[in-house]
Design goal:
This protein is mainly α and 189 residues long. The chain is built from seven helices and no strands.
Length: 189
C-alpha cells in the first residue's frame, strides 16, 4: 500500500503494450515454424528403424511417379548412404531448432522481454551466412530470405532498443521518486 511519501506501484503493462502487432506476426511465424520442425523431427526419429528405400518406393507408387524419374533415381541413390545415426543426429538438431523457435514464438506472443533479445541474437547470427549465400548464388529466393531477415532483425532490434530505454528511464524515475535520507526498513525478525 502506498503512503504519501511513496510512489504508487507501477501497473503491469496492458496486453497491447506487451506485444505489438508486428511482434505477434513474428511470434506466430516462429510458432508455426517450430511446430513444423517438431513434426519433421518426430518423422525423422520414426524413420530410424525403417527401410528408407522401401518408403520412397511406396511414396513413388502412391503418387504415381515414374520410378525411372531422374529425381527418384537420385533420391534412391542418396538414401543408400543414410544411416540410422545420421537420422538420429538430424532428428536431434531439428528438435533443438524446433524448441528454440517455439520458445521464441511463445515468448514474443506473451511479451517477454528476453524473447526479443533472443530473436535479435538468433536472427542476427544467420544474416552473415545469408549474405554469403546471396553473394555466391544470387537468386530471388536467397535475396528474399536475406531481405526478410534483415527487416525482422531491424524491426525487433529497434523495438528492443526502445523498450530497453523505456525500462532504463522508468528505473531512473523510480530511483528519483524514492525519498532521500529515508531509513531502510528493518530486517525481518
Amino acid at each position: 500500500m502506498a503512503t504519501a511519501d511513496q510512489a504508487p506501484a507501477a501497473k503491469p503493462p496492458a496486453p497491447a503494450e506487451k506485444a505489438p502487432v508486428g511482434l505477434r506476426v513474428i511470434a506466430m511465424a516462429k510458432i508455426i515454424k517450430g511446430a513444423a520442425w517438431a513434426g519433421l523431427s518426430l518423422g525423422l526419429f520414426d524413420l530410424i528403424h525403417q527401410d528408407l528405400t522401401a518408403q520412397v518406393n511406396r511414396f513413388v507408387h502412391e503418387f504415381r511417379i515414374s520410378p525411372e524419374n531422374h529425381y527418384v533415381v537420385l533420391a534412391l541413390d542418396k538414401l543408400g548412404v543414410v544411416t540410422p545415426a545420421t537420422l538420429r543426429r538430424l532428428g536431434m538438431l531439428t528438435a533443438v531448432d524446433a524448441t528454440i523457435q517455439l520458445i521464441e514464438g511463445f515468448g514474443l506472443w506473451l511479451g517477454a522481454w528476453w524473447a526479443e533479445y533472443l530473436v535479435v541474437i538468433s536472427t542476427g547470427l544467420f544474416v552473415p551466412e545469408e549474405y554469403i549465400s546471396v553473394y555466391h548464388n544470387p537468386d530471388r529466393i536467397h535475396l528474399a530470405v536475406l531481405v526478410i531477415n534483415l527487416v525482422v532483425l531491424g524491426y525487433v532490434f529497434d523495438l528492443v532498443l526502445k523498450r530497453h530505454l523505456e525500462r532504463s528511464r522508468a528505473q531512473v524515475a523510480a530511483k528519483a521518486a524514492e525519498p532521500r535520507g529515508a531509513e531502510p526498513p528493518p530486517p525481518p525478525a
